[in-house]
Write a structure and sequence with these properties.
The chain has helices at residues 12-23, 38-47, 64-73, 91-99, 111-122, and strands spanning 3-8, 29-35, 52-55, 82-86, 103-106. Helix content is 37%, strand content 18%. The chain is of the alpha/beta class. The protein contains five helices and five strands; from the N terminus they run βαβαβαβαβα. The chain has a single domain, classed as Response regulator (Rossmann fold), CATH 3.40.50.2300. It has a five-stranded parallel sheet, sandwiched between helices.
Length: 143
């Protein structure tokens, strides 16, 4: 199964970095979709089949928390795997996000930490035959 991934972050540089890490994660990938805020993210979800969302919290127009609430309220997206990738570090806020059934990775992140979270959330393990396929760019985490 190839995963279609939506990356929602107001920073184009951060979206590119996250996409690079996901490509090197060992997870079988389909298409990548990008959005600069939660409103654009919801439009992407309405137009495309998405298997995994990587979501920032602090964004203009519609923040990640509002997008996440709407995802969880919609029966079609309520169980969609979401990883929040954010500078937000308030223990209360992180706990509230985890209550919504999401994983959390703190920015700035080590590529290995994001990779481990992606593998945990997607359920991909080193025993899976597609895990052993090298990433398109060689799988090196050097930026």
């Amino acid at each position: 199964m190839a995963f279609n991934v939506l990356v929602v972050d107001d920073s184009a540089v951060m979206r590119a970095m996250i996409i690079r890490v996901v490509k090197m994660s060992g997870v079988p990938l389909g298409e990548f979709y990008e959005a600069g805020n939660g409103e654009e993210g919801l439009r992407q979800l309405g137009a495309n089949w998405i298997d995994l969302v990587l979501l920032d919290i602090n964004m203009p127009v519609m923040n990640g928390e509002e997008m996440l609430r709407r995802l969880r309220a919609d029966p079609e997206t309520a169980r969609l795997p979401v990883i929040v990738v954010s500078t937000e570090s308030s223990e209360t806020r992180v706990h509230a996000l985890e209550e919504l059934g999401v994983a959390f990775v703190h920015k700035p992140f080590a590529p290995e930490d994001l990779r481990a979270t992606i593998l945990r959330v997607t359920g991909v393990t080193p025993d899976d035959e597609y895990y052993a396929v090298p990433a398109a760019d060689g799988g090196d985490f050097d930026f």
